[in-house]
Amino acid sequence: MPPELRHAHRQNDRAVMQAYGFDVKTTTEASCVAEWMKMYQKLTEPVEQATSIKRLPVYSIQQDWMLPHDRAPPSPCRSKTPLPIALFANLLYDKCMIRKSTPPTRLQGGSPMNTLLCALGNIATPEEVAALQAATPSHLEFLLLPQGQAPTPEQLAEAEIIIGMFPPKLLAEAKALRWLHLTSAGVAPGIAEAIPEGCLLTCNSGAYGVGIAEHLLAMMLTLQKRLPVYWEQQKTGTWKNAGPVGGVEGSTIMVLGLGDIGGHFARRVKAMDAHVLGVRRTGEKPEWVDELIPLEQLDEALPRADVVALCLPGTPATDGMFNKERLAKMKPGAILLNVGRGAAIDCQALADSLEAGHLGGCGLDVTDPEPLPADHPLWKAPGAFITPHISGGFNFYNTRRRIVGIATDNLRRYVAGEELLNLVDPATGYRRLEGRV
Hints:
Layout: H1 3-11, H2 14-19, H3 29-44, H4 77-80, H5 82-96, E1 115-118, H6 126-135, E2 141-144, H7 153-158, E3 159-163, H8 168-171, E4 179-181, H9 191-194, E5 200-202, H10 209-224, H11 227-235, E6 252-256, H12 260-271, E7 275-280, E8 291-294, H13 298-301, E9 307-310, H14 324-328, E10 335-338, H15 347-356, E11 361-364, E12 384-386, H16 397-416
Parallel strand pairs: 1-2, 1-3, 3-4, 4-5, 6-7, 6-9, 7-8, 9-10, 10-11, 11-12
């Protein structure tokens, strides 16, 4: 691609774009597609087309001539018409923001090579995809899949790097895998066992702290201020005082797990003048924690807490941590929050505790099982506030931006031979202390 045109379509230089025959007044994706198709036909008229292109409905283009930026297309295009196809592909992707609806494939005749399989196709912006492509090792082909779309067995077999979340059963087919970068903050059960021995494992811890901490605050304040009661009264036009409410100032809040998520939440409630009890396996007391409680002393400290927030990863050690017996040790009227893993709480025992009036409420973004069955008693338990595992999703722009940013930074580190961020110890499922975001 001519340097001046590459600069133009990245910097929106209208004059140069017009000089190359592009309609810069185009604003809608539908009209963009039409303009680029016209331009493609113009560019390829003098030469033999190297691949067939089908027009599908807007937002979807079939065939994989969408090539990474600044990379020459594989044969046979290299010898016949490299510039038009590469130009058209890059401009179509960058300017129209087209999302592929079919799994990516190579151009006909392309030589086999290992790949970087990235499952952020319907999440990352075109600019973010371009940054990921630019950071991809030169010996790898970049393949983009929408999140939630399963790769083919062939794609898994050729994947040297995977960025995304796939079930352990699929990951076990990735025999050539050398590095798995999870887009989650933690490691789900079975992941570490499914990847090849010696494969690097990293996670996206550091991307979710702000968004999930805000979600925790929202759930906690909603329950403390009894907002669901007033929401129900509003439906019937009832003007009635619902009675005493709680608050953050002067309360004792226990945070289990002081990583990215727990740390952000603890800082916020500390700034609101709560007394913060931090519970962690190892490490020193952070300045934003008033007391550091060893895990083995959890039961002794539980009765002191007005709010208990679980920010724990899913490991055998955390499964069933808050069972019937431990829930009974909590302070009467206390609030239990969980944004870590649903398996940390016995949901049936929690529903029973709420029904009995022992706990004052619970705010859950994770449950066990998920989805929570429609007939589960927790749905109708008094004081239960449930969201469908969305606090750490891609709905919050800040979270999405951080997810892609950490992945891109780690790609650059991988190429440079530097220590990767958020390396996970497969034996424990926790991040190593060094290299944390």
